[in-house]
Design brief:
The protein is mainly beta. It is 0% helix and 66% strand. The protein has no helices and ten strands. Strands 2-1-5-6 form a four-stranded antiparallel sheet, with no helix packed on it. A four-stranded antiparallel sheet has the order 3-10-7-4, with no helix packed on it. It has a two-stranded antiparallel sheet with strand order 8-9. β8 and β9 form a beta hairpin.
Length: 98
């Protein structure tokens, strides 16, 4: 069974056993959480009622993504700025879709 869930402003297609990286969620490694907003659920070609589906996941780790370099320049004005950013992520293992 699969489900489409929304968390952190993004949508993910998940099934039991999948590992996904989402925007930071509260919790420690080993905690079990429930992903609340289920948009769609189904098995193969048939769709199920998404309101009755719950998706539970286990937090594997809290991590950071790859570094993104932010470089600003205005030509002929001697203006250069260089910043880096690493977004915080939560790694999840989907335990069940039921």
């Amino acid at each position: 069974m699969f489900a489409i869930v929304r968390t952190g402003g993004k949508q993910y297609r998940v099934a039991a056993g999948d590992k996904i990286a989402v925007e930071k969620l509260a919790g420690e490694a080993g905690d079990t959480i429930t992903l609340g907003e289920v948009l769609l659920a189904g098995e193969g070609d048939s769709l199920a009622d998404a309101a009755s589906i719950t998706v539970s996941a286990e937090i594997i780790a809290q991590a950071k993504s790859e570094k993104v370099i932010v470089f600003k320049k205005r030509r002929r004005h001697n203006y250069r700025r260089k910043n880096g950013h690493r977004q915080q992520l939560t790694l999840l293992r989907i335990v069940s879709v039921a």
